[in-house]
Amino acid sequence: RLLLEAGAPITARTPDSDPLVIVASERMRTLGYSTRLTPESRLDIARLLLEFGADPNATCHIDGMHRLTILHAAAHDGRTEIALVLIDAGADVTAANELPESSGLTPLHFAARQGLTVPAALLIDRGAAINALTDEQCRLPGMTPLDLARTDAMRTLLTTRGAKPAADLPQPKK
Question: Are strands 65-69 and 59-62 parallel, antiparallel or unpaired?
Answer without folding.
Answer: antiparallel
